[in-house]
Design brief:
Chain A: Belongs to the CcmE/CycJ family. Chain A: GO terms for molecular function: heme binding; metal ion binding. Chain A: It is a single-pass type II membrane protein. The complex is a heterodimer of chains A (148) and B (642). By secondary structure, chain A is an alpha+beta fold. Chain A folds into two domains: 31 residues; 112 residues, Beta Barrel (OB fold (Dihydrolipoamide Acetyltransferase, E2P)), CATH 2.40.50.140. Chain A is built from two helices and nine strands, in the order αβαββββββββ. The relative contact order of chain A is 0.15. Chain B has three domains: 336 residues, no CATH class; 115 residues, no CATH class; 100 residues. Chain B is built from 19 helices and eleven strands. In chain B, helix 11 packs antiparallel against helix 12. About 1% of the residues of chain B have low confidence. The chains are: A alpha+beta (148), B alpha+beta (642). At the A-B interface, helix 1 and strand 1 of A face helix 13, strand 1, helix 14, strand 2 and strand 8 of B.
């Protein structure tokens, strides 16, 4: 009797802990999961300022400017349909350059500029952010096109 | 010739694994002793053959044999020999060959050294080990042959990813795999015991050293991997909650729970079914991790092979083995007798709490890791990162730490609540003092979680050495020392993590040669920048001198390295280690006006993170030696007498 009783308590405690954890996880995931947006999605759906997202696309040629402090850069991200201004303070990855793919982690400020806290650039042919797979930049039209 | 020999050895090993399985099945079913007698030699030969195959591949890499596909795509003749050697497992096929080699070695070790287990359970265990190996041989031979040739041979190779060209590659993956795959032994033990219905204290005592050994290796592997990512990526972080990191953390969490529940089973003959289930889960997590890494299904800084066919293959293996194991568990667990009862306030209960909390963290990490896959099925691309994991796992880990301090101070079987509370008085008092001190010194500059982390780290450090209190230290058994050191290691590591996240000072600057960057009491003088050349790279190196509070200057040389094959640039951070922290300097790009980006961190006590990891592994090793030594001594004496 006693042993069974105790087993029941332990089992119930375990169950409660697991269900509690599951619920917590569900609510946390809703808040904390960073959705991936292409600039066209941003324009179409809108993203509330301060919400952590991942913004992906190509760095528009001619849009990269370096601020006077030497460590802040401004650039535009495009997916061919829309264009979003972004800002980043820090050491950009070595392969971050105009006309090249980028996934930026961060959030929008109230003026609609994307403040990136981290930049992931295409590393080489084998190490490309998966979101950008198959996308290509058209050198002439400065547009992005989806690959096959 | 070498490639063909390696491939032949691999096929032969696979055939022996099949033979091993057949021998066990017919031997046990028909009680044929002559069949079972052959199992151990077969298992050992199988292990030797996988080793031979692996050595062949190493030789091919060392000789830069450009008629072998894998060498061509992952090596280069101009690479330093260490990276030719370690590059053997710096790719998909090679690392899977390392996986089956470790698996074969583990099987051989069980065949050679396991003496405590009952005969039929031992045989069933070796049968299970052969069954798991078979799946991975099939994976290697049918979809990831490391020995495939190309004709005509290439002029030279494409080189190894420069991020991997670091001494860390020689140490980190093999240690990690020893842990990962070592857990297959626990899995096989559990299946073996379920088949023979011998789940008891003797079984747990036989399984414990294998679990401990795998766990020690896994701990070392994760610690090494964390430090490697810390200095090689140049981001100043030591854990990124990357799917590949989670893939190694999840088996560790399960193995840590298993390590503690197996002790309950060995000491008190309780938690029988739970221990068996954990043994199954631990290696299942290893396989899930392999699937996540090898299928390239998740976005990751590691993102290796992206190959749907391989992913499907591993997924099928996963389903067969995990599903099969749980089916066996469900079928046979009714036959496992109930274990010994225990009171609510007892060491057993504390260890159950430990197991529950570890399982909850494991579940949360698993959910967070797999969530992006789930949403992608519904058309959303999401990534789950540090904010989720920190918020979820952080607080629970802190509760776990408190339980860890209380557990060893609670008696087996039954204890009184007030007595336990009394023993926790000193750690609790220390916690309060620490809290007051930190609040007085750093209020407003420190977050809640780091604050709680610091306070709990100090209290747990005191609590974890408390079991030695009033004990004759020379007569304290080695495994008790092991526990104390491992628990203290957890506190040390937690202290490092909390200190790093609370007190790190970061400075981002653009400086030209001659400038001095000042931060956190350090003066970093940027002397000059100049090109230098290494074996297979060229670099721009900044010469800097760092001094603190007017003290002596130390030279630092952060670099930006360029590798020609494959064409890639990497940043090599410069680290300056002091007893109370690390100065971390990264050289960025030129800003166009003669200045260079420099990023500097001062990270107080960050090294404690990895020091703690090493202590945890050391504690495990001491416990292992302590438990085994008695057996060895007795055996040795008996042999000497004979």
């Amino acid at each position: 009797m006693k042993a069974k009783h105790q087993r029941l308590i332990l089992a119930l405690a375990a169950l409660a802990a697991l269900i509690g954890a599951g619920l917590l996880a569900a609510s946390a995931l809703k808040d904390e999961a960073a959705y991936f947006y292409a600039p066209a999605d941003v324009k179409a759906k809108g993203v509330e300022p301060g919400k952590a997202i991942r913004l992906g696309g190509m760095v528009v040629k001619g849009s990269l400017r370096r601020a006077a402090d030497g460590v802040t850069i401004h650039f535009d991200v495009t997916d061919g349909k829309a264009r979003v201004p972004a800002i980043f303070s820090g050491i950009a990855p070595d392969l971050f350059r105009e006309g090249s793919g980028v996934v930026a982690e961060g959030a929008f400020d109230t003026k609609g500029t994307f403040v990136a806290t981290n930049l992931l650039a295409k590393h080489d042919e084998r190490y490309m952010p998966r979101e950008l797979e198959g996308m290509q930049y058209d050198e002439k039209t400065h547009q992005m096109k989806a690959g096959q | 010739m070498i490639a063909e020999a390696g491939l032949a050895a691999l096929w032969l090993a696979a055939a022996l694994a099949l033979l091993q399985l057949v021998l066990v099945v017919f031997g046990l079913a028909g009680r044929k002793e002559e069949l079972l007698g052959a199992v151990r030699p077969v298992a050992v030969s199988q292990g030797l053959l996988t080793l031979l195959a692996f050595l062949s591949l190493i030789l091919l890499f060392l000789r830069s044999d450009m008629s072998v596909m894998l060498v061509v795509t992952n090596s280069h003749s101009m690479k330093p020999w260490l990276y030719k050697f370690a590059g053997t497992w710096g790719n998909h096929e090679g690392s899977m060959l390392l996986w089956v080699t470790v698996m074969g070695a583990a099987g051989s070790a069980v065949a050679l050294f396991e003496r405590a287990l009952g005969r039929s359970t031992h045989m069933a265990t070796l049968g299970a080990q052969a069954a798991i190996s078979l799946g991975f041989y099939a994976f290697l031979l049918f979809s990831s042959n490391p020995f495939a040739r190309i004709d005509p041979p290439a002029a030279d190779g494409q080189g190894l990813n420069p991020l991997l060209q670091d001494p860390g590659l020689a140490f980190h993956p093999p240690t990690l795999y020893l842990g990962y795959v070592g857990l297959s032994v626990a899995f096989s033990f559990a299946l073996g015991a379920l088949l023979t219905r011998q789940v008891d204290a003797a079984f747990a005592r036989a399984m414990r050293p294998w679990v401990l050994a795998a766990w020690v290796m896994l701990t070392l592997g994760i610690t090494a991997g964390s430090y490697w990512a810390y200095y090689e990526l140049g981001w100043g972080g030591w854990w990124f909650w990357d799917p590949v990191e989670n893939a190694s953390l999840m088996p560790w969490l399960a193995a840590t729970a298993l390590l503690h529940s197996v002790t309950v089973l060995a000491t008190r003959d309780a938690l029988r079914a739970w221990t068996v289930m954990l043994a199954v889960i631990a290696f299942s997590m290893s396989m899930v991790g392999t699937f996540l890494v090898r299928s390239g299904i998740l976005t990751s800084v590691h993102a290796f092979a992206v190959d749907p066919e391989r992913g499907t293959f591993i997924l099928a293996l996963l389903a067969i083995y995990i599903g099969g194991a749980f089916a066996l568990f469900g079928w046979r667990i009714g036959a496992v007798r109930e274990g010994a009862p225990f009171e609510l306030v007892s060491r057993e209960t504390m260890l159950v709490v430990n197991n529950l909390l570890l399982s909850v963290i494991l579940g949360l990490v698993l959910i967070g890791t797999l969530y992006p896959l789930l949403t992608e099925a519904f058309g959303h691309k999401v990534s789950v990162g540090a904010p989720y994991f920190d918020r979820m796992a952080g607080p629970i880990a802190l509760v776990l730490m408190i339980a860890m301090a209380a557990g060893p101070l609670t008696r087996w079987r039954r204890d009184r609540f007030r007595a336990v509370a009394g023993r926790l008085l000193i750690p609790a008092a220390v916690a309060l003092v620490t809290l007051a001190l930190v609040v007085a010194l750093a209020w407003g500059r420190i977050g809640v979680l780091p604050l709680a982390g610091l306070v709990i780290a100090v209290a747990v450090a005191v609590g974890s050495v408390a079991p030695l209190w009033k004990r004759n230290l020379r007569r304290t058994p080695l495994f008790t020392w092991g526990m104390v050191i491992a628990h203290l290691g957890c506190a040390v590591s937690l202290g490092g993590m909390a200190s790093d996240s609370a007190f790190t000072v970061e400075k981002l600057a653009a400086a030209r040669p001659g400038d001095t960057i000042e931060t956190a009491g350090w003066a970093l003088r940027f002397t000059r920048i100049m090109p230098i050349a290494g074996d297979n790279w060229t670099a721009l190196q900044a010469d800097m001198t760092a001094s603190r509070d007017g003290g002596g200057a130390v030279e630092l040389h952060p670099q930006s390295r360029f590798f020609a094959s494959p064409p890639t640039t990497t940043t090599e951070a410069a680290l300056l280690t002091r007893w109370n922290g690390q100065l971390y300097v990264v050289l960025g790009q030129e800003t166009g006006d003669g200045r260079w980006q420099v990023r500097v961190w001062w990270k107080p006590f960050v090294t404690f993170i990895w020091l703690g990891g090493i202590m945890i592994a050391l504690g495990g090793a001491l416990a292992l030696v302590g438990r085994e030594r008695r057996g060895w001594l007795m055996k040795w004496r008996a042999r000497a007498a004979a």
